[in-house]
Amino acid sequence: MHPSESLNNKQVALGIHPLRFLLWLMIISITMMFAAFTSAYIVRRGEGGWLEFDLPSGLLFNSAVIVLSSAAMQLAWFSARRDELRRVQWAMLATFALGVLFLIGQWQVWEELVQSKIFFGGADSNPAGSFVYVLTGVHGFHLITGLVFLLVVLLKSLRFQVHSRQMMAMTNGAIYWHFLGGLWLYLYLFLLLNH
Amino acid sequence: MGSAPTSAPHIQHHVAGDHHDEHHDEGNFLTKYVFSTDHKMIAKQFLISGIAWAFIGATLSTLFRIQLGWPDAQLTWLEPLLGRWVEGGKLNPEFYLALVTMHGTIMVFFVLTAGLSGTFSNFLIPLQIGARDMASGFMNMLSFWFFFLAGIVMFVSLFLETGPAAAGWTIYPPLSALPQAIPGSGAGQTLWLVSMALFIVSQLLGGVNYITTVINLRTAGMSMAKLPLTIWSFFLTAILGLLSFPVLFSAALLLIFDRSFGTSFFLSDIYIGGEALNHVGGSPILFQHLFWFLGHPEVYIVIMPAMGIVSEVMATNARKPIFGYRAMIGSLIGISLLSFVVWAHHMFVTGMNPFLGSVFMFLTLIIAVPSAVKTFNWLATLWRGNIRFTTAMMFAIGFVSLFVSGGLTGIILGNAALDIQMHNTYFVVAHFHLVMGSSAFFGMFAGVYHWFPKMFGRMMDEKLGYVHFWLTILAAYLVFLPMHYVGIAGFPRRYYAYTAYETFNQFADLNTFISIAAIFAFFAQFVFLFNFVYSIFRGRRATENPWNSNTLEWTTPVEPGHGNWPGAIPAVYRWPYDYSKPGAEQDFIPQHIPYSQTVSSNLPYEREME
């Protein structure tokens, strides 16, 4: 048999674990959703009748919180690679807590908006305000799914099931969490530029 | 990093084949037939639900064709079925619109998206690429049950007191947003949106699985350039779904907010009974842009799996390699790319900037190029082939005929100037029913007749299949050819009764004729239903490879068990279309036969690989 016919050395797949690949595809579909929202925002804004208002100041604080949360996640990931399992647990706990803090902060932002009479719906609402609620709300929903993911990784790390030879869940969690953080920074920047 | 793919244990237990594992294979009724994670069972679940939905969708169309064909008839005899929707022997006009809406929704999404992709992507992807199962069997199961739940919600909406959704399958606001405008936009539309949200989740769960499986789980030697065209078409279809369904989800979400939370994304300055509504500053055109960004790729999601199935069935039964294998892949990719940049050709009459219209017109007409490449390749595959007219082959040829007939009018409608004349007439209805409706159905029938032996271990009856084919293709043309004619004459869509207009009265006979043909087509499908159900239990026993086909699924046992191959997965050495190769012993060489075993037929460049 000719050597080219022995197929052992052929690598047909991408070398990515199927679960990792599934995650990337889901990230693509979430991206498409927000691409639709933000392009709808631009089209709708271009048509006029748009209420201009100052973004709540809480958004900046929340952005800082989610960046810190991503940093903690990265710390947990590096620690897992180096088998420093205690630090993995602390860093995961910090990531999770900062994620919850971000969500509470977004809730405060909504309250701030209501106080300045920017409503989601009803007679006094304007699409300009409604869009802010939709963008933060749908992002918040995905962040909750991210927190569930973090919780799974956290529980695994508390049972010492996350270490340098078992990184699948940890890395997937980190990818998803960084994506959600990056998505928020995009949305924040988008809102800043389009106001 | 990470654990081995989930399929690995199956390899071991089949090799070991001890008693305990065999028992595990059978499972109980619930895990084998209901909450199954086996791709073959999930495919059958999709197929049977798809068939059920197709009959519901066709029943709805029969009802409104009765109204259109005999507008003055007394319909009291329908009261047992429709109850209050028949008032004094007349069909309720708003219920007529609900029938049209639900027919469109059911056929496009539940039958031709879930029924077609769900069945054949699930069944064929692992079998044809040489995998034990999908990348995630659990997500695959979820995909079916989300679809099932979506179906329940949609079905329940048919029985609401205010009727199901009635704003068309495209659910344009403001009509779909205001219950004051039409009763179907009340609870019916709410259930429609809930159902579609569940449906989108189902499609995404299924789609990411199809893509991952094709990318990651191909057997040794199965490079992308050795994949059967079915797999290429399912793969690209799944990518289209992954990119476009989230956008529909966004649009539906904003519509839900407009309907139930008082936002004004799509609604603006509406007066009802002299009263101004609260909505200020929305844009209904924005909804159309978001909707058609899904809506146009959606028609390719419907037709591309049919194209793949037809290519495979046609090459097998013409006993010839598919003509232009790489051109076929290239044209599929071309169609996929173009599908995302033509959506506004559905919106030429929305007051669009004529320059923008001409850009979309230009891009639309380019689609004729890859479509023509495919058509000519199919014809060239048939040319001087050693054709076996199996039922599947008849449907595959019928597909090409319908696709050409319907595609030609697409060139007319793609022209902005002509579309403005034809828009909202029956010409449009005739166009899309031929090119994506009937064609996709023919592709699906070809697939069912062709892969039935592998699905159920038995053959479908060929004679009944012939009867089904001839009745169906005859009826399809008898319905849709006259429809072009009334469309050119200006007969408008979505009109419940046209007898009030002197101009359209002259088409009463033609409409009656179309209705008779449509009802005839509906009854012809019972031949298929009987053949399908009867053959599952009483059909002739199939062999492993009844069509002498090359692809890997035919190397599995007659009824493949969980894990598909009892032993090792075969490796792949050649492309799937080595039919009638000069010098070969038989007129087919399956993909898993190495070149060293086919010395007599190897071409000069293949000698190195012996």
From TrEMBL, chain A:
Record InterPro entries: Cyt_c/ubiquinol_Oxase_su3 (IPR024791), Cyt_c_oxidase-like_su3 (IPR000298), Cyt_c_oxidase_su3-like_sf (IPR035973), Cyt_c_oxidase_su3_a-hlx (IPR013833)
Membrane-spanning intervals of the chain: 21-43, 55-78, 90-110, 130-155, 175-193
Compartments, record wording: Cell membrane
Keyword NADP: no
Membrane topology value: Multi-pass membrane protein
GO cellular component: plasma membrane
Single annotated GO MF: cytochrome-c oxidase activity
The keyword Membrane is annotated on this UniProt entry: yes
Pfam families: COX3 (PF00510)
Annotated Heme-copper oxidase subunit III family profile domain residues: 1-195
Predominant localisation class: membrane
Gene3D superfamilies: Cytochrome c oxidase, subunit III, four-helix bundle (1.20.120.80)
Family note: Belongs to the cytochrome c oxidase subunit 3 family.
Protein name in the entry: Cytochrome oxidase subunit III
Organism of origin: Solirubrum puertoriconensis
Automatic annotation (TrEMBL), chain B:
Membrane-spanning intervals of the chain: 46-68, 95-125, 137-160, 191-217, 229-257, 290-311, 323-343, 355-373, 394-418, 430-452, 464-485, 513-537
Protein name: Cytochrome c oxidase subunit I
A GO term for molecular function: cytochrome-c oxidase activity
Topology of this chain in the membrane: Multi-pass membrane protein
Cleaved signal peptide residues: none
One example of a Gene Ontology biological process annotation: aerobic respiration
UniProt family annotation: Belongs to the heme-copper respiratory oxidase family.
One GO CC term, this protein: membrane
SUPFAM superfamilies in UniProt: Cytochrome c oxidase subunit I-like
The Cytochrome oxidase subunit I profile domain, residue ranges: 29-573
Chief localisation class: membrane
Keyword terms, alphabetized: Electron transport, Heme, Iron, Membrane, Metal-binding, Respiratory chain, Transmembrane, Transmembrane helix, Transport
Pfam families per record: COX1
